[in-house]
Amino acid sequence: MNQKKWVLMATAQTPTNIAVIKYWGKRDETLILTITAAIGMRPWFYPLMISVSPLIQTTFCTTTTVAVSPLFHQDRMWLNGKEMSLSGIRYQNCLREIRSRANDVEDEKKGIKIEKKDWEKLHVHIASYNNFPTAAGLASSAAGFACLVFALAKLMNVKDDEGKLSTIARQGSGSACRSLFGGFVKWITGNKEDGSDSFSVQLADEKHWDDLVIIIAVVSSRQKETSSTTGMRESVETSMFIEHRAKDVVPQRIIQMEEAITRDFPSVARLTCADSNQFHAVCLDTCPPIFYMNDTSHRIISYVEKWNRSEGTPQVAYTFDAGPNAVLIARNRNIATQLLQRLLFYFPPPLDTDLNSYVLGDASILKDVGIQSVKDVEYLPQPPGISNNNASLKYKGDVNYFICTKPGRGPVLLSDESQALLNAETGLPK
Ligand SMILES: Nc1ncnc2c1ncn2[C@@H]1O[C@H](COP(=O)(O)OP(=O)(O)OP(=O)(O)O)[C@@H](O)[C@H]1O
Ligand SMILES: C[C@@](O)(CCOP(=O)(O)OP(=O)(O)O)CC(=O)O
């Protein structure tokens, strides 16, 4: 290793993912091994071109820069601008595993040569930023740990494929195991005690079903009271229902969901809604009970259920992770337009809201709905099938904002150094 004062960096971006068959319950807390398989989809990656600049932003993603330098005296991490400790077992396990797979790295332009054996002595700096609420039931740990492992793997020239990397990300957070791929991803339970057969596989990539449209209703950005880690531990300890779910329900649902992903929307919708409801029923069966959804979440469920029933076949699926925020999957753009129209009718923004901050992501759906300003929302027609008595039932301000997006891709490396979160000379946050 040459001793000049250099800093070598890599920056990656990873969208978060939503589970359509939920992971809830561990059989090993340290290695993070699940009691059931789980299937997730990658919805939250919608490139949003900002017209006045060449910047490409993404909706709901984590950006992580990792750096290595002989200047660094210890491993350090900054999350959303604040320094945090890396002493926790999850971070330590990820760092140890990835370091053990590091290879020789050479950057001829910068005159940097790191040999495989040097990695044990070198320290890393990590800066990560979530452009969405952290620890609020929007899977920040999934995007966060997947992005960290992916970025470190690139920096350290780790040759393992995404499946192998998923076993490392899994040790940061279970849901991160599914986040190394785009599209639909299955986390295989595995049987081995060391967890080596508990990894993820891609079932279908993001292009396989790209007419799906996803609308996320962010009902609350507040940090939830019971983290997923604590919640699922308490469910395993106290819920009788969780065993039935793990033994008799999820194995069949996984098989059915894999079949349905061949573009059978009604089956995907039925399975997704049923699994979300059952996961929340397990939370309720936990002692003390865990309430992740709120009245707004319940209202959204009943609107979708009524609509689906009136059509005779599901048009929209809903699913809720460990929080009140709804992820709604529409079978195509036409249905998504109707869905957004209905959502805006029931949950109009307060009058002083800028529409561009109320509907984020692919806001072009707003045009299809025929809305240009907040004022237009007031004149939206009443959704069919509601009696006039209920027409006045509007819940202004109960949804913080909506995001329109599509199935998305997996982690990507950002080659443009201006997007790095660490300074290229000091390796400290910019
Ligand atoms: N960008 C990130 N990089 C590294 N770690 C992160 C990042 N974002 C979040 N985390 C870790 O994940 C923790 C939050 O995980 P938690 O499971 O409580 O919430 P969540 O993932 O947002 O919600 P849920 O999993 O229920 O959808 C944070 O306290 C932090 O330790
Ligand atoms: C409801 C879920 O979102 C739970 C996610 O739990 P986490 O992956 O956040 O938990 P840990 O493994 O303890 O970090 C369902 C899912 O993503 O499958």
TrEMBL record:
InterPro entries: GHMP_kinase_C_sf, Mev_decarb, Mev_diP_decarb, MVD-like_N, Mvd1_C, Ribosomal_Su5_D2-typ_SF, Ribsml_uS5_D2-typ_fold_subgr. One of its GO terms (molecular function) is diphosphomevalonate decarboxylase activity. One of its GO terms (cellular component) is peroxisome. Pfam families: MDD_C, MVD-like_N. The keyword ATP-binding applies. Residues 95-122 form a coiled coil. Belongs to the diphosphomevalonate decarboxylase family. Performs the first committed step in the biosynthesis of isoprene-containing compounds such as sterols and terpenoids. This is Diphosphomevalonate decarboxylase. The gene is MVDD.
